[in-house]
Amino acid sequence: MTSPWDCNKSARSPNGHLVAKIEGAGEIAMGAPTCGVLRVSNGIEVEECNPSFVWSDDSQYIAIPHWTPNRKQKIMVIDVAKKKVYLASGVYRVLELYEFINGIIRGIDSPIYEPCKINISVEDVVSNT
């Protein structure tokens, strides 16, 4: 699990074929969570991401908190093989994602103040776009 306040992260896919990393992350405001660029070794690049990302257990997807212009977050799901990006419908305060197993993304919204567990089905995300 990676804290939303971390400045970097690098993680190899479960099958070992790809590496995803956050680069250039910095606080979005003093003491606030961080924001940087996600770079995947297959050429995918996405800006405005938080380092608290997780690979799916089948290595098909990355789930990552993505910052909105009003400093809220949405869950972004990236299909690494198809190089397609999907946004989940919910809006969150600060996401801390900790696992992505059997198609379910699990995490906590606002881990420090009034935390709330979340469970999102990847099928709901990719089928609604």
Write the layout of secondary structure elements.
Blueprint: E1 9-12, E2 19-27, E3 34-40, E4 45-49, E5 54-55, E6 61-67, E7 73-79, E8 84-87, E9 95-101, E10 104-109, E11 116-121, H1 122-127
Antiparallel strand pairs: 1-2, 2-3, 3-4, 5-6, 6-7, 7-8, 9-10, 10-11
Model description:
With 129 residues, this protein is mainly β. 5% of the residues lie in helices and 50% in strands. It has 1 helix and 11 strands; from the N terminus they run E-E-E-E-E-E-E-E-E-E-E-H. It has one helix at 122-127, and strands at residues 9-12, 19-27, 34-40, 45-49, 54-55, 61-67, 73-79, 84-87, 95-101, 104-109, 116-121. The strands form 3 sheets. Strands 1-2-3-4 form a 4-stranded antiparallel beta sheet, with no helix packed on it. Strands 5-6-7-8 form a 4-stranded antiparallel beta sheet. Strand 9 (95-101) and strand 10 (104-109) form a beta hairpin. It is globular, with a radius of gyration of 13 Å. The chain starts with 8 loop residues before the first strand and ends with a helix.
